[in-house]
Amino acid sequence: MEEVEVKRENKLNLTDSNDIQKVTMKLAMPAIMEMTMQTLLGFADMAMVGSLGAVAIAAVGLGDMPIMTLMAIFAALGTGTTALVARYIGAKEPEKATETARQSLIVGLLSGALVSILVVFFASYIIDFMGAESETAPYAIKYITYTGATMGFLVVNVIMGGVLRGCGDTKTPMYANGLANILNIIGNFLLIYSSAAYVIHIPFTDLSTTLFLPGAGMGVGGAALSTALSRVISSLIIMYVLFSGKAPIKFSIRDKYKINMSIIKKILNIGTPAAFEQLSMRVGQMLYGRKVAMLGTVVYASHRIALTAESISFMPGFGFALAATTLVGQYLGAKKPDMSEKSGYEANKLAFLFMTALGVVLFFFPELFIRVFTRDPEIVANASLCLKLVAIAQPFLAAVMVFSGALRGAGDTRYVMINTLIGVWGIRLLGTYILIDFFHFGLLGAWIGMVADLFVRGTLNFLRFRGGKWKYIRI
Q1: What pTM was estimated for this model as a whole?
Q2: Could you tell me if 277 and 414 are in contact, meaning their C-beta atoms sit under 8 angstroms apart?
Q3: Cα–Cα distance between 102 and 106 in angstroms, integer?
Q4: Which residues pair with 197 in a beta bridge?
Q5: CA atoms 320, 323, 329, 331: torsion sign
Q6: Could you tell me how far CA 67 lies from the centroid of its own chain?
Q7: Distance of CA 61 to the CA centre of its chain
Q8: What's the rounded Cα separation, in Å, for the pair 373 and 50?
Q9: Within 13 Å and on the Cβ side, how many CA atoms surround 394?
Q10: Residue-wise pLDDT tens for the chain (475 aa)?
């Protein structure tokens, strides 16, 4: 949504649910499209890696998880910046919104570069901690080294994408990340496989032609390099938009890029609990994945493929959570707390409908998704059972995602942090260890722990939002 559209929206003085629904859909759909493209191309990405075998699948999973865990550190900047920018845009204070974004960029560049260096230097130690088996470890180390080297660009992408979404511009991140994901798939073809000639038969004729495709034959390393380059491209596109004057917030090379501790303190006041929340969740998920990895390479490959297939349900949740964050923040900035509440409920209602429908499909047709990645009968059976389990939790996952987004938009990040600690560590992780070690449920026990976590967090999020204390938080 462009700047002029945000202003017009604020003048509508929305009072009924139909208007709220229209604005929510307008914000959510580009984000859903972005997530849809990312998910579908992620399917293709995993399918190409999956063609290399279970060891390759496990290596990518083990190499990617620590990167996503480290990204939680930057939730302090991303969440704090988005909430502040949305609040300032709603209050019609664009100068403060711009300065907030500028400070986040400075800190993001510096800290992102530092983390990139640390990941590359400690790559082998990280993979060893993850519990990789001897046959998987070399490939996982290569993967995390390549992707870790470009973490600074990923940080910029996440933080500046959050800035644009806080303004109501969900289209630019969609275009940037969508193009990058397409280039990632092309890069996979060129870097994973060796050069080869393919015979293509022309339908309904006896004719055929030979197509030669060059390839580097890098295997898992090629997948990592392609992912790293795509992240660089998407971050450069977002930065170009911000410096070109085409975004609601505009940067210039003539701006003064000096650290302003008062603004950074405001960002961190909101974002630090969010950072701790994300870090605790990612570390919990990493330990959760490590526990599954100890069950063997085939079991862990089944786990990773099931997670990838389940990610199709994240698409609507992701979009409506972003819409809730933006609208709750902007309406609170405009001194309209009742509209903030309506927008949160409307976003959750829409996510509930979409995700429940997807849950039905996942429950009755799990193999349809699993066979995209592998034909291994043991992996198909394991992963299909996991999908059936998580399908019944989709309404609760909607509440986890959307109400967390709404509460973050209001600045109520401390509660979201506490809820995450209870769910991920107290329910998912502890439950998984008990079900695997004492009851010997194996992979099934891990996914029962996950589903129980979603039930608890979704319920607690709803109760917190209904309580309304978030309306009175000052940022």
Answers
A1: 0.76
A2: no
A3: 6
A4: 212
A5: negative
A6: 12
A7: 15
A8: 6
A9: 27
A10: 333 333 333 433 434 445 788 888 888 888 788 777 766 665 666 678 877 888 888 888 888 878 877 777 776 678 788 889 988 988 888 889 999 999 999 988 898 899 999 999 999 999 998 888 888 899 999 999 999 999 889 888 889 988 988 888 888 888 888 888 888 888 988 998 888 776 777 766 777 777 777 878 898 899 889 989 998 999 999 999 989 887 778 888 888 888 889 888 888 888 888 888 878 887 888 899 889 989 988 899 899 889 988 888 888 998 899 899 989 998 998 888 999 999 999 999 999 999 999 999 999 999 998 988 888 899 999 999 999 999 999 999 999 999 999 999 999 999 999 999 999 999 999 999 999 999 999 999 999 999 999 999 999 999 999 999 999 988 7
Tokens representing 136 are 């998987």
**Domain that includes residue 285, residue range:** 3-472
| Tokens 């279970």, residue located | 54
Tokens 């933080």 found at = 159
Q: Which residue has the tokens 């870097």?
A: 191
Amino acid sitting at position 318: F
Query: Sign of the CA dihedral 381, 382, 385, 386?
Result: negative
The number of folded domains in the chain is 1
Give the position of tokens 């990493």.
286
Phi, psi of 111 (to 5 degrees): -70, -35
- 468 closest CA partner among 414, 391, 407: 407
Q: Which of 75, 62, 78, 202 is nearest to 133 (CA)?
A: 62
- What are the structure tokens assigned to 255, written together? 């701006």
Angle at 67 between CA 260 and CA 76, to 5 degrees: 25
Using DSSP's 3-state secondary structure scheme, residue 253 falls into coil
Taking the C-alpha atoms of residue 246 and residue 200, their distance in angstroms, rounded to an integer, is 44
Element (H, E) at 47: helix 17-50
Instruction: Describe the crossing of helices 171-192 and 220-244 by its angle, rounded to 10 degrees.
Output: 150
Q: Which of 312, 304, 298 is nearest to 363 (CA)?
A: 312
Nearest residue to 61 via CA among 144, 1, 126? 144
